[in-house]
């Protein structure tokens, strides 16, 4: 059995949005018991991460780290069509993930206790981000 | 339904090669309508990336960034059997991706408008790189 | 056909453990000939990597590189509930992989000659790490 669904997230600019619940809903719709859930973001300046979900400081520290590692407006960048955060957003996306594969067991996402699924917006302004979810199994 | 095929790319040294068309061909061969396409590179010094496909400067900037982040011949590296670009190629591969999972909808890759699939050669000399594609769905 | 199994690895602190054999065993149990093997780690401070498997210096150099890129106890980190290696472990996990998808051909993992599958422990103390493997195909 294979099942696809999609949703759009309106981000509020750079930062992480928890989408674990949205994905679990699609797993429930599929009524599969055992399988995999593939989550795909159809963009190159926003990405997906599995991140610790208990302490918001973890997401804050990740953002601080990424902001230092990949500097907006770095003078080595030639591509700046959409501004100082354009090229840095592409690199941040590549260093994290455009898709995640999550196991399904007993009819639910089989995540670890502290794992949450986050959409990570890398542009500083709000964007509509399209997520395509493919669930398969039995 | 599950279907496997493979192809080899002769790279011209460090840099990115667009393989989106090669992968779409395999999806077409499979005649699947809904599913996933798994692309796997059987090497540890070349990798795969989903990257912006409109402005070549994006790939240039990504390469400049990676070259600064992971320095060839970094004195901290002990492994240099195949030269100054040997260990840096392994690290670049790990920071990017060895496999990609791409959704298939309506019989085609369901990529975003600006997403291209690239083989990223990290060695400075040309290599033959083997890609194994597994397509499944209905 | 879809098949799930799991195992736990007791790590000895920061570093890499080869789990290729454990995963190949599960592929053999499944008796599948063609498909994919999804390996998932249910933690956010340990991860998975596909890495060169011939020269142990490669894993040593990767660790040296990661230790310099993501500093334990970096003063920019606010999250330090479990110590100086807590936040750095989360970032190292995100820069590497929480899951791997490996192709199966002719009844075995279709890895390249030099590719090994490693559990990468990022905490300095030993931990029990749970791995969930989902194999599917025909």
Topology:
Three copies of one chain form a homotrimer.
Chain A (H helix, E strand, L loop, with lengths): L1 E9 L4 E4 L1 H11 L4 E7 L4 E7 L3 H14 L16 H10 L3 E7 L2 E2 L5 E7 L6 E10 L1
Antiparallel strand pairs in A: 1-8, 2-7, 3-5, 3-8, 4-7, 5-6
Structure, briefly:
Chain A is an alpha+beta fold. Chain A contains three helices and eight strands. Chains B and C meet through strand 3, helix 3 and strand 8 of B and strand 4, helix 2 and strand 5 of C.
Output the helix-strand order of chain A.
Answer: EEHEEHHEEEE
Question: Which stretches of chain A of 5+ consecutive residues score pLDDT under 50?
Answer: none
Query: What's the CATH architecture of chain A?
Result: Sandwich
Going across the biggest sheet of chain A, name each strand in turn. Answer: 1-8-3-5-6
Alpha-carbon Rg of chain A, integer: 16 Å
How would you name the oligomeric state of the polypeptide chains in this document?
homotrimer
Shape field of chain A: elongated
Beta strand count of chain A: 8
CATH superfamily label of chain A: YjbQ-like
Strand content of chain A: 35-45%
Number of helices of chain A: 3
Structural class of chain A: alpha+beta
Biggest sheet overview of chain A: 5 strands, antiparallel
How far do the termini of chain A sit from each other?
Answer: 6 Å
Q: For the residues shown, what is the average pLDDT of chain A?
A: 98
Give the CATH class of chain A. Answer: Mainly Beta
Tell me which protein chains meet in the greatest interface and how many residues each side has.
Answer: A-B, 30 and 33 residues
CATH topology group of chain A? Jelly Rolls
